[in-house]
């Protein structure tokens, strides 16, 4: 009986360690996702600014000289 209890305690310790590692992995991934979302938002703003400042709307465009 004592051996079974010891084996269960050992297993529980391994499970707790694994849970701690998995929990830290989730925390790290969440942080990375937040960083990536921020970078995407910044890139989207830069693209919108570049597109809106450099390209005229189709109705404002003059036809090319060969027309």
Q: Write down how many β-strands occur, each being a DSSP E stretch of 2 or more residues.
A: 0
The shape, in one word, is rod-shaped
- CA-based gyration radius: 29 Å
Q: Beta-strand percentage? A: under 5%
Q: What is the percent of helical residues?
A: over 70%
Polypeptide structure, described:
The chain is an all-alpha fold and 67 residues long. It is built from one helix and no strands. The longest helix is centred in the middle third of the chain and has 53 residues, at 2-54. The protein is rod-shaped.
Summarize the topology.
Layout: H1 2-54
Summarize the structure.
The protein is an all-alpha fold and 67 residues long.
Annotation keywords:
single chain; 67 residues; mainly alpha
